[in-house]
Amino acid sequence: MMTTTADLADDEISDAERVFDELVAHEKRIEPRDWMPEAYRKTLIRQISQHAHSEIIGMQPEGNWITRAPSLKRKAILMAKVQDEAGHGLYLYSAAQTLGITRDTMTQQLIDGKAKYSSIFNYPTPTWADMGAIGWLVDGAAIVNQVPLCRASYGPYGRAMVRVCKEESFHQRQGFEILLTLMQGNEEQRAMAQDAVNRWYWPSLAMFGPPDDQSPNSAQSMKWKIKRFTNDELRQRFVGMLVPQAEILGVTLPDPELRFDEETGEYAMGEIDWDEFFEVLRGNGPCNAERLERRRTAHEEGAWVREAAAEYTRKQALRAERQAA
Ligand SMILES: [Fe+2]
Ligand SMILES: [Fe+2]
């Protein structure tokens, strides 16, 4: 059972808080049974549920290409990849449930348009090369973001991330390999690959969130050891990973200002279009309405599966009861 602040007297809260602070300070995990500050619980519910929603909505842009993948092998790989994302969503919903929110509530928040998910999935996937660019850039950014989350102070979240990260690295390589194949093809294929990189590069950099000086919640998350690095630090790390890989691919990263600054030891880069980022976040991206509508329909169409599962559980329990009697 989880202990919430409401169950405790004032002096017990200060004791519980001291234990919590010590656990976090000593890199020990906070588990569902432990007392935790309400703000920590709320922050985690928001972050983990948004993360879960992103995995689930993220199935759509690639799902769009399953029927049109250029070969049986590509189709099988893409199906496995999209299925992995469904699994990530499920681990994460389960992790969020340990904090006292139900799966139904989270699903309702998503289909009512009240919950956020990563803005990147509101961009369209008009060509096959988008499958390459998403794997390379979007899953690539996800890895950079998520590897440090394997050490998140909240146990169920950190453990879910370990499994997720292993699969993300397969996703990133399959995307890279799609782009590599296209870049070794004819002129039209190379142009298609470059065009997809042009469209996904900036939104993938925006995935790390606003610059540090405009990210008010980061400091608290770092204090709680949910987050380990700032948005800008992670963005730097990501660009550092992309530059040599872009060279191997033979694609150009669409930022004329991008260069390694020997003095600072960091990449200098052009300005991200934050106005666009916030517009998409507010729901005005090219595919926001379509993504939510699809999710809503899928939920309605899946009602009979949920009912059947509930009925099966009911009958199993009844049978167990009779056997025990
Ligand atoms: Fe994922
Ligand atoms: Fe992925």
TrEMBL record:
The cellular component terms of Gene Ontology attached to this UniProt record, alphabetical and capped at eight, are: cytosol
Q: So which domain of life are we looking at? A: Bacteria
- Which InterPro entries does the entry link to? Aromatic_CoA_ox/epox, Ferritin-like, Ferritin-like_SF, PaaA, PaaA_PaaC
Pfam families reported for this sequence: PaaA_PaaC
Cite the SUPFAM superfamilies for this sequence. Answer: Ferritin-like (SSF47240)
Q: Which GO terms describe its biological process?
A: phenylacetate catabolic process
Q: Name one GO molecular function term.
A: phenylacetyl-CoA 1,2-epoxidase activity
* Protein name from the UniProt record: Phenylacetate-CoA oxygenase, PaaG subunit
State the organism of origin.
Answer: Microbacterium esteraromaticum
